[in-house]
């Protein structure tokens, strides 16, 4: 008689036997963070231009306003890049 298991071997062994345990945890972590990060970045990219409007209305002559506008513009570009694939099939 053989010792027959009701589970197939694929369910016991990892899909990628060459991947180390930390590598699998890293991939799982990236997959679990990717969706929420894209969601937050997408909506940040949508709402951040409304923060630019008061700065533009005040004028960019003041160096602190110009710095704030430039930083917000950079954050907006980064948010657009990160969130551009949000909710796509």
Characteristic terms for this protein:
4 helices
Q: Helix fraction?
A: 55-70%
Which whole number gives the mean pLDDT? 82
> What structural category do the secondary elements indicate?
mainly alpha
**How is the main sheet built?**
none
Question: What's the domain count?
Answer: 1
Strand content: under 5%
The beta-strand count equals 0
Rg calculated over all Cα atoms: 24 Å
Query: What sequence of helices (H) and strands (E) makes up the elements?
Result: HHHH
Low-confidence stretches: none
Tell me the span between the first and last alpha carbons.
49 Å
Describe the secondary-structure layout.
Elements: H1 9-12, H2 21-47, H3 49-58, H4 63-83
Helix pairs in contact: 2-4, 3-4
How does this model look, in words?
InterPro entries: DUF8028 (IPR058341). It is a single chain. This protein has 89 residues and is mostly helical. It has one domain. 70% of the residues lie in helices and 0% in strands. Helix 2 packs across helix 4.
How would you summarize this macromolecular structure in one to three sentences?
The chain has 89 residues and is mainly α. Helices cover 70% and strands 0% of the residues.
């Amino acid at each position: 008689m053989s010792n027959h298991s009701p589970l197939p071997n694929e369910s016991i062994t990892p899909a990628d036997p060459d991947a180390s345990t930390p590598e699998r945890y890293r991939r799982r972590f990236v997959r679990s963070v990717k969706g929420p990060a894209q969601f937050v970045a997408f909506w940040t990219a949508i709402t951040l231009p409304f923060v630019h409007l008061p700065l533009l209305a005040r004028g960019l002559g003041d160096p602190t306003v110009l710095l704030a506008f430039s930083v917000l513009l950079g954050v907006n570009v980064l948010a657009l890049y990160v969130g551009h694939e949000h909710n796509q099939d």
